[in-house]
Structures are given as structure tokens and as C-alpha cells.
Amino acid sequence: MKKRVFGIVLAGMVGLSGLGLTACGEATVSVPFDSQINEDGTYNENIFYRNDCEVYAPDSQVLKITEGEEAGYYYLYATNDLTVYRSKDMNHWEDMSNIVGHKAYLPEKDDFGNGLTGAYWAPEVIYDAEAGENGMYYMYVSMEPRQGDPNKCDETLMCLKSENPYGPFVNIKEPQAQAPDWNAPATYEEKLLKGNENYFFDMKKLAPILREKYPERFGQSYSYVGALDPHPYVDPATGDKYLYWVSENCYLGTGTMGTVVFVIKMQDWETPIYQADAVWQLTKTLYTTVDGTQRSDCEIEGNTTNEGPFVYAKKQADNSYKYYLTISANGWDSKTYSVIQAIGDSPVGPFTKLQQADGGTLIGTDNSLWDHISGPGHHSFVEENGEVYILYHQHMDLVAAGANRAVSIDEIKFTKNGKGQEVMYANGPTRSSVQLLPSFVSGYKNIAPEAAVTSSDKQDAAVLNDGLVSLYSYIDYVKEFKTKKEVTLTFAFSDYREITGIMIYNSKEYATAFDEISKIKIYFKDGEEEYVGELNNIPFDMETNSSTVWLAMRPGAAAVALFHPSMINRIEVTVSVPKNRVVDQDDEGKYIYQQEVALSEVKIIGKV
Predict the structure, then answer these.
(1) Over the chain, what is the mean pLDDT?
(2) Local structure of 209: helix, strand or coil
(3) Per-residue b/e over 225-251, b at no fewer than 16 CB within 10 Å?
(4) Where are the beta strands (DSSP E) in 200-300?
(5) What's the CA gap between 371 and 368, in Å, rounded?
(6) For 23-72, what is each residue's pLDDT tens digit?
(7) How far apart are alpha carbons 353 and 346 in whole angstroms?
């Protein structure tokens, strides 16, 4: 077959704009495309999502429903007076209280909580198919107890259950009828523990174990153990059940008090095992290990917070598992709030936090260098068809930060860091830039990793289809492709693939960023005939995705070209150094012009 030369419209390839293909030179045809830069802010929601931070959902957890009438939905549980949302795409969420007529939990006037609806936060739900007659959803909730001292914050946990993911959930315990008399002659601890067996955690049983096993955390004098941010987890290796939680008022060994992550083994989802050999401390705030002295540089000076634990287990070649304990640090109301990761060989540790250069900060704000993200944290993971996504919250107000936080999602990949450790890597956090929907939602995925990629200047271009978007200034094991001259990058497939678009991610550095991609060629066929199509001047939204004041990029954004689905076996991307683009000034005030251009990653949008 020989390549056709055209001067007419190709009937089989109508562009997204409704235009046909027209002749462009002797051997190519011009391909209309949609750059997704629309003045009204719209984009193709069948293929992309965007973290617009519109759904208020602090301390987010996502759970895919696999049973019953809600099968196929993703449920979102968060700190929002226990309102529950559902979604088919994890992008558009609907309030279930508007559908079923009630919230997930309906507190009574004599409820556990101090202040009723304002007393609950950070819920997390797990489904147990073997509980009850038809399976059971268990919700663990942080709460401020009604019989707690009104002048103190003495958090504990509730355990609720329901046959439906939207509730109504009911407490497995009965509330205490009367709060203690705070003026009665008794120690504070005696008052606080009075009737505490009505709560999920019986502190009369748990507190002595913790104090004896970890005296350096709690001491022998009174320090209320406390419990918040629950995370139920089933070990895939053994099937054992665990409940992770955060204990407050822990001595940190620095003259301060703070929060520390613990885990307890469960007999079942309603019964903790109150034994010393079934409880473990997993983190030491500010330090990389529980008993170590090395500082964690992912935690800012003065941090007192390790919270929001979530565990992900990755199966190894020998059928063992590597466990990733991910937690949030640096204060939920701060711009520096972030998710950090620790690695261990068991769900009960020991875990070692990674340092920043090794991938320790899973999602953050690049040490507050970014102005487009604030406080990304308190998260969960969802996995399907080999794809992993992190769902988390970030501040809705980039300046004020604070309590208003919205749900966001981004892609998780695994890669080797500079020390050869396999670590989690997030292609995010992102905001206001379109990203590919999960393939299990859209039916499209990034197929660039399946292509052989080469560069016309003979440079190694494998970094362009490794699935990793370069983001952080302190991570050097995620590379960018750089060139000082015009080059053509070729992505070749072994056979024709149905492809509908391409995303070319910009450099994380302002000095090496591009403002457009000059040309893309696609080699496609219609029936038995082969053609060459050309896309010209694909724009990048530099105004949205960079700060010209600070001469800094807002990384995580791409130039996008979406076109009619076509059978393609080769794509060529031509990129050149922008001319006369000022990227800085020297000490004498003279302009410094761009000398080099870099690409972070290329995603090719192909049919699953």
C-alpha cells in the first residue's frame, strides 16, 4: 500500500469541530483538533476530568460498591455532617441524602456526640460480605464524646453499621444516658472513663496496654489516649482484620505533644483484641522510624501531626507483599499539609518513612513553592484494572486555606527511586488542568507506554512514555526530555490502534517550558488506504498553568489535541525551542532568553 496524496475531504475522519480534512502540502492532510482550551471553561467530560474543587468533602474516602443495587457506583464519605456522595466517574458527585431522603447517620438528642451534628469527622467505610445475612457496611467515625470535658478535645471512635452503603447507619453501642458530673469529687480520668465501655474503644482496656507497652508515648501519669481518623484494613496475605487509628496527646520526645499512628488487630469488625501483642505503634511524628532519631524532612519544623492513615499493599514477584503506609502531616489547615509514605514488610510494621528526595512526599505543594495547590491530604486509594488513583482533599481557598476542603483525584504509579526502592508516585496534585479519566470510566487509556519512542537527535526518549509526570523540584529520578534544537519524537506501534488524541505535558521548569507544540503527524488508515495527517500549532494554556510574576510553572498540565478516533500506527511530535522568550533576568537586569525546551511526559489516548 502506498500513502495517498489528497486535495479533498476524507469522509471517514470528521474532526471534533465538525470540519473535514483538507489538503496541507503535497503529502499530508490537515487534521482538525480540539485543544480543550475553551473560553467558557468546558472540556470533553467523556475522556477528561478536572479538579475544580467544587464538592466540599474534607477527609475524603472513596469506596467502590460491588454488591446490590448500588453496584458500580463509587461512594464518597467525608467530614461533612456525614453526608454521603456517589459517582460513576469520581468526577461528578451527587448527594445521596437528596436521593434516599436522609444522611448516613441520624444522631438523636441523647447521641454520643457533643454538639450532635458537629461532633463527627473522618469517617471510613468497609464492606464485609460475610457479616449479617446480606453483608454489612461498617463505618468508623471520629467523634468528640458527649461525656467528654467541654473544655477539652477528647476524641474517640464510633463504629456504625448498615446493610446499605448510604445508611442509615446505626451504632453498635448504646449511648450513655447521662454525662459525668464534672464538679463531682473524682480525678479527671475517672470522670472521663466513666461509662466509656459504651464507646467502640474501651479505654479502660486499651489505655493500660498502650501505657505499659509505650511509656515513652503516654507515660504513667494521666494523658488521655484518644482516638481519631480510623482506617479498617484487611491484609491480602492472611485475611486478618486491622483497625488503624491516630492517638492524640502523645509525647513526641521533643518537649511537645502530638498525634501518632497505631494499629490494633480485630477479632471481627465489632471487636478489637485488647492484648499487648495485638497493638502496635507505627509512626513517630517528625522521625522516619518509631525508635529512630533521623528526622523526616517531609515534616516541617514543629509538626505535631501524623494522621489520616491508609494502607496499600503491592504484591511482589515472590507472592509476598510490600506495604505502603500513607499518612498526612503538617496540619490540616496549612498549605503545607501533605500525604507522605512509609514502607514496610508487614501491615503492622515496622515502617520507615521515605525522605523527600526518595519520594517521601506523595502529594504536597513542593515545599510551598506552588501557588495553585494548598493543603492536599487525608486520602484513600481506589484500584481497578491495574490502575490506582488517590482521592484526597485540597483547600478550596488557595489563600486562606482553613477548613473548606474539596475532593480531588489523581493517578498513582509505581517506580524506582534513586535508591532502587519501588515507591508510589502521584501524577498530582493537579488543579484546573484536564487529566485522563480512569480507563474503567471512559473506555480510553494512555497507550504511549506500548509504543517504541525515538528522537531524531538520537537522544534516549524513554522518559516520555514511562507514565510519570515530572512535578517536584527535589525529585530527580523522574526525568524530563530536554533539547536545545528542533527535534521530532516518534511513537511507533506494532499495529494500528484506535487513537483519539494526545497529551504533551510541559516542563516543570519555567526556563524550559514550551508555549505550543509546532506540529504533530499521525499515520492512519481508512479501510485499506494509508494516510498522513498533520496537526499544527497545538497551544498550551500558559496563562493558567504558569505564574509570569514568579516565573514559575504550575506543573501537571499538558498541551492537548483531541481528534476523531482513527486507526493509527505512528505519531510524530515536533518540538522546538521558543524564539525570543524571556525566562529570567541577570544581576544587571538584562533579559535571559530561553535556550532549551523540555517535555515531561506524553500520553496517547487510545481505546482500551
Answers:
(1) 90
(2) helix
(3) bbbbbbbbbbbeeeeebbbbbbbbbbb
(4) 228-234, 241-251, 257-268, 271-272, 279-281
(5) 8
(6) 444 467 999 999 999 999 999 999 999 999 999 999 999 999 999 999 99
(7) 14
Cβ proximity of 76 and 87 under 8 Å: yes
Instruction: Enumerate the β-bridge partners of residue 311.
Output: 325
At 358, list the grid cell. Answer: 526518595
- For 251, residues 6+ apart whose C-beta sits below 8 A from its C-beta are 216, 217, 218, 219, 223, 257
Residue 361 CB partners (closer than 8 Å, separation 6+): 298, 338, 339, 340, 472
DSSP 177: S
Bridge partners (DSSP) of residue 329 are: 306, 338
Q: What angle do CA 33, 38, 40 make, to 5 degrees?
A: 150
At 547, list the grid cell: 505564574
Residue 192, classed as helix, strand or coil, is helix
Amino acid type, 308:
G
The string of pLDDT tens digits covering residues 174-203 is 766 555 666 677 766 666 666 676 778 888
Rounded distance between C-alpha atoms, residue 296 and residue 352, angstroms: 10
CA angle 347/350/355 to nearest 5° reads 110
Those residues with Cβ within 8 angstroms of residue 330's Cβ, 6 or more apart along the chain or in another chain: 299, 300, 303, 305, 336, 337, 338
Contacts of 132 (CB under 8 A, 6+ apart): 163
Burial of 207: CB neighbours in 10 Å, binned 0-12, 13-18, 19+: buried
CA gap 364, 356 in Å, rounded: 10
The pairing of beta strand 22-23 with beta strand 29-30: antiparallel
Amino acid identity of residue 140, one-letter, is Y
Question: With contact defined as beta carbons under 8 Å apart, do 124 and 61 qualify?
Answer: yes
Spatial distance between the Cα atoms of 233 and 322, rounded to a whole number of angstroms: 15
Q: Which three cell numbers stand for residue 449?
A: 507506554
- 81 by Cβ neighbours in 10 Å (0-12 / 13-18 / 19+) ranks as middle
DSSP per-residue codes, 408-456: EEEEEEEEE-TTS-EEEEES----SS-EEPPHHHHSEEE-GGGSEEEET
- Encoded amino acid at 565, one letter: P
